[in-house]
Amino acid sequence: MSKTTTGTPSEATGDDQDLGAAGSQLSTAPAEEPPNLPSLGVVGWIRWFWRQLTSMRVALLLLLLLSLGAIPGSLIPQSGTDETKVADFRDAHPTLGDVYDKLGLFHVYSSVWFSAIYILLFVSLIGCIVPRTWQFVGQLRGRPPGAPRRLTRLPAYTTWRTEAEPEQVREAALALLRKRRFRAHLAGDNVAAEKGYLREVGNLAFHIALIVMLIAFAWGQLFKMEGNKLVVEGDGFSNTITQYDDFKSGNLFSQDDLDPFSFNLEDFKGTYETSGPNKGTPRTYQASVDYSVGAYGKDRKTVIKVNEPLEIGDSKVYLTAHGYAPVITVRDGKGDVVYNQAVPLLPLDSNVTSSGAIKVMDGYRNAKGVKEQLGFQAFFLPSYGGEGSAVVSQFPALLNPVLNLEAYHGDLGVDAGIPQSVYQLDKSHLKDFKNAKGELLRENLKPGETMKLPGGAGSVTYEGTKEWANFQITRQPGSGWALGGAIAAIFGLAGSLFIQRRRVWVRAVKGADGVTVVEMAGLGRSESAKVPEELGDLAGILYDRAPGAPDPEDSSDATPTTPDPQVVPAEGAEK
Amino acid sequence: MTLAAATDLAAATNENLANISNTLIYSSMAVYTLAFFAYIAEWLLGSRSKVGRTAAALTESKTAAAPAVTVNKAGGTAVLERPQVVVRSAAGARDVPDGPGAHGGDAQGDLYGRIAISLTVLAFLVEFGGVLTRALSVERAPWGNMYEFNITFSTVAVGVYLSLLALRKNVRWLGLFLITTVLLDLGLAVTVLYTASDQLVPALHSYWLYIHVSTAIFCGAVFYVGAVATILYLFKDSYENKLASGGTPGRFANSVLDRLPASASLDKFAYRVNAAVFPLWTFTIIAGAIWAGDAWGRYWGWDPKETWSFITWVAYACYLHARATAGWKGRKAAYLALLAFGCWLFNYYGVNIFVSGKHSYAGV
Ligand code: HEM
Q: The Cytochrome c assembly protein domain covers which part of the protein (chain B) (predicted)?
C-alpha cells in the first residue's frame, strides 16, 4: 500500500511479510523505528527530534517519568497543601531544605521539571494523535485490503468444497458479513471484510480526552480562587477579597471574577454519637444560612453540610470546620462596657477542647483612668467533666461549658505593625493580674458568671456561647470540562480495550476438478480466541448456504489436520 | 430516659453484631486454613504423576520448527462434516501446552483440589457473613478503616477467583497462591489492623464514597489476581527458557511449574485481567475526584493518596502501552505490571501508614 502505511505492531502477527497489505493498517499505532541519527543539518535534527518525541518509546519513557516524578511530592511536605509542615521541615533540615528548594521539591507539581515532563508528554500525545487521526480517516475512506495469496497462513483458517458457484458463495458471504456489520466488499476472487473500527475511535477519543482534561486542569489552576472565612452565628460574609481570613488565587484570577453574593450564618448544628465505643464522633454538621446573590438579590435560606456545598454561580461554599465562640463582656472600673463580642476559639482535639485569646484593644481605662489594653488567655471546655476530672472536654457538644480565663494587662503589641495571630497573646509587654494570693488571676467561669479584676480594674463576664463555622469558598473554572473529558476518557478506553479490530476474508474459486473451493480466514490485531470463534460461526452459516461437496480422493492436503488433537487450544488460560 | 434506653439497646445489638462479625472472620480463617492444606495436598499428590509436557513440547519443537496446529470445532454444536477452523499461533511463539493444573492428572490430587475449592467457597461465605455483620453493626458500608478494608478486600479477591471458576475459566492453578495471601491478609487484619467498629466522620458521608471505595476494592482485588498470574508467568517463562536452551531445571521447578499453564497463557491471562479492570480503575479515580470536590472543595489536590492513585494509574497505562504499541510483550511488560501493582499496594498500605494526608482518617 502507500508509503505512509505502517505495519501492524509486532504483536499482531508474527509474519507480516507474508501477509503483505492484508495485515497492514489494522491499527493506527505508529511503527517503532530505531533511533538512527540524522545527517541533514538543522531541519534534519528537528525532524529527528520530533520523530523521537512522538515515538512510542519516548511516550512510554515520559509516562514512566511522570509517575516517578509524582512520587517526591507525596513524601515531601508541599507548600501548596501545608505551609507549616514545610516550615517545620526547613527548620529541622536546613541544608536539605535548601537543596529541596533549589530543586522545587516543596512544590513538585508546579515545578519546572515536572511541568516539563507533562508538557513534553502532551506534545508527544498531540504529535501522535494528529497523524493517527488522518491515517484513520484514510482507512475509513478506503476499503479493507483484499485477501493475501495464501490464506492458510492466517491465524484462523477454514476451507471446504461446495457444489455452489463461486459467485453465489461470494454473494452469500458479502450479504452475511454485511449483515454482521462488517465493512465488506468484493475484491476479485474474494470478499474482504473488516470490523471493529470503534476500537480506534475509542482509542483516539481517549487520548484526545486526556488533552481536554489537561487543558481544563491548567485553566482551572490559572483562574481558580480559594479563600477561608470564619463566621460566628449571627454574623455574615460578603464575597470581597478584604473579607477573607486568607485568600489564594491562580495567576490570571482577577478580583472581578468574584461572584457577588453574601450570606449570614443563622445557626450551626452538630450532632454526635452519644453512646457506644464511638461516643463523641460527629454524625452531622450543618450550617443554616441566609444568602443573597448580587447587590439587591432576594434573601434565600439553605443548609450547607459537609459534603453538600452551596453553589452560587461558579463559586462553591463549603463547610470545613466549626468550633465555639464564647460571648464575652468586659467592663471597666466604672462599670461601662468596653468590649462585647463572641470570641471564636480554636479546637484542639476531637472533643473541641478549645483555646484562644480575648484582646481588648481600645476604650479601656484602668482604675487610675489610664488607657491600657487587656488580654485574656482563654481555654474552653464544651463538656467539662466536673471537679477533679482532667482539664479536657469530655464531649464535643455543649453539655457543661466551662471557660477558663487568665487575665493580663498592659500592651498587647498589636500596634507594632507586625501581624499577630488573633488566637494568641503576645505576653512580652503584658503584666499579670494577681489574685489575692499573689498568683496569676485565673478562674473557671460558667455561662453568666463574672470574674472581677483586682483593684477595681473592672470585670469580665462569660455571657453564653455561640458556635462558629469555617467556610471555604472556591471557584474552579474548567471543572465541567475536566469531568466531561474524564467521562469521554472512560468510554474511549473501554472501546479501545474491549473491542477487537479484525478482518475476515472469504475466497471462492473453482478448483481443478470444477468443484468450488471456499477458503475463509480471520486476522485480529492480536491473537485472540474470539477471531477463530467468530470465523467458525460465520463459516457455519455460510456452509449452510453453500453445503459441502464430497471430498475428492486426495483430500489429505486440502484440510490440514492436527498432528495431535489432544493439544489444548492456544487460549487455554481462560477456557 | 426511654430515648437513652433505646440508644443503649441499639448500641448493645450493634456490639453483638460486631462480636458475631469477629467470630465469623476467625471462623473463615480456620476454613481457609483447611482449604490451604487441601490445596497443598493437591499439589503434593499431583507431583506423583510425571507429566513433563513442557519439556516434551520444547524439545520436540526444536526438530519440528513449524508451529503446531490445533483444531477447534466450528461452533459449539457443530455437525462433524462442517468446516473446522484451524488456529495457527504466530510464528516465533513457543508452542507449549498448558500444564494440567495442580493435581497433575492424579485422580486423588484432583479430589483434594475439589475439596479445596469447596472449602474455599465455604470460607468465602463465612467471611462474607463476617463483612456483612460488620457492616450491619456500624450501619454503614464496611470500609471505614484498614481493618474493614482488608477483610472486604480479601473477600472480594476470593469472590473474583470463584467467579472466574464459575465462568469455567481455567484458573484453578491460582488457588493455593491466592489462599495463602488471603490468610496473610486476614492475619494482618485481625492482629495489627483491628479497630473496634466505629462511625465515619461527616466527610465520609457521601454516596460517592460508596462508589469510589467499592470500585477501588474491586479493582485492587482484580489487579491482585493479575499480579499473581504475572509472577507465575515470570517463573514459568524462565523455566521454559531454560528448557528451550537445553538446560535442566531443578526438580521442584519441574514438578511445580510444569503443572501451570503455559507462560503464554499466563501472560495473556494477566494482560486480560489488568486491561479489563483498567477502565474501572480510571473511573475509581474520577469518582474519588468528584467526592473530593464535594468534601474538600477541590477535585484534585495532590494529596498523597490521590498522588499514588495517579502513579498507579500511569504505571498501568505504561504497561498497557508497552503491550499494545511498543511491542514489549514478555518479561519487560510483566515487570511493568508488577511495578504498577507495587504502586497500588503502596497506595493502600504505605500511604496510610507512612504518609499523613487527608485520607488518613479513622485511625489506621
Ligand atoms: C498521557 C498519557 C497517556 C496515557 C495515560 C495513555 C494511555 C493509553 C492507553 C490506556 C491505551 C490503551 C492500550 C491498549 O489498547 O491496550 C493507549 C493506547 C495507545 N496510545 Fe496512549 N496514552 C498516553 C499517551 C500517549 C502518547 C504520548 C502516544 C503517542 C506518542 C500514545 C499513543 C498510543 C497508541 C498508538 C495506542 C494504541 C493504539 C492501538 O491500540 O491501536 N499515547 N494509551
A: 143-356
Q: Is the pLDDT of residue A260 over 60?
A: yes
Dihedral sign for Cα B107, B110, B115, B118, please. negative
CB B128 within 8 A of CB B86: no
How big is chain A, counted in residues?
575
Pair B319, B333: CB distance under 8 Å: yes
Q: Would you call A552 an interface residue with chain B, using a CB distance cutoff of 8 Å?
A: no
User: Average pLDDT in the A1-12 region?
Assistant: 36
CA distance A490 to chain B (A): 6
Please state, in angstroms and rounded to a whole number, the distance separating the CA atoms of residues A346 and B193: 32
Grid cell locating B296 = 474538600
Which three three-digit cell numbers place residue B120?
A: 474455599
In a domain, B230, yes or no: yes
**Identity of the residue in B71, B198, B302 whose CB atom sits nearest the CB atom of A78:** B302
The DSSP line for B230-297 is HHHHHHHHHHHHHHHTT----HHHHHHHTTSPPHHHHHHHHHHHHHHHHHHHHHHHHHHHHHHHHHHS
Residues A40 and A120 in one domain: yes
Shared domain check, A544 and A416: no
Q: Note whether A12 and A150 are same-domain residues.
A: yes
Q: What is the mean pLDDT of residues B148-176?
A: 90
The mean pLDDT value of chain A amounts to: 83
Answer whether residue A204 is part of any domain: no
**Domain annotation covers residue B138:** yes
Specify the number of domains making up chain A.
4
DSSP one-letter code for A560:
-
Residue A313 included in any domain: yes
Instruction: Please give the residue range of the domain that contains residue B108.
Output: 9-58+91-354
Per residue in A45-79, pLDDT (tens digit) is 788 778 777 777 888 888 889 889 888 888 888 88
CB–CB contact A217 B283 (8 Å) = no
Question: Do A449 and A402 share a domain, yes or no?
Answer: yes
Residue A532 lies in a domain: yes
Is residue B83 situated within a structural domain? Answer: no
Co-location of A124 and A7 in the same domain = no
- Give this complex's ipTM: 0.82
One domain, residues A128 and A66: yes
Candidates A276, A306, A474; nearest CB to B11: A276
Give just the sign of the alpha carbon dihedral B196, B199, B201, B207: positive
Residue whose CA is at the smallest distance from ligand 1 atom 17: B321
Per-residue pLDDT tens digits for A145-155: 888 888 888 88
Q: Do A40 and A59 share a structural domain?
A: yes
A 496-535 residues with CB below 8 A of B?
497-498, 518, 520, 527, 532-533, 535
What are A287's three cell numbers? Answer: 450550617
Question: Using one digit for the tens of pLDDT, what is the confidence trace for A109-137?
Answer: 888 898 899 889 989 999 889 998 999 99
Give contacts of A11 with chain B, Cβ < 8 Å: 323-324, 327, 329
| Residue B249 maps to a domain | yes
| A423-451 confidence digits (pLDDT tens) | 888 888 888 998 888 888 999 999 999 99
Q: Please tell me whether residues A316 and A327 are part of one structural domain.
A: no
CA A293, A295, A301, A304 torsion: positive or negative? Answer: positive
Residues of B in contact with A561 (CB under 8 A): 71
Q: What total number of domains does chain B contain? A: 1
Mutation target among A54, A74, A84, A526 for the B interface, most CBs of B within 10 A? A74
Q: What is the pLDDT of residues B233-270, one digit of tens each?
A: 999 988 888 888 877 777 777 778 888 888 888 988 99
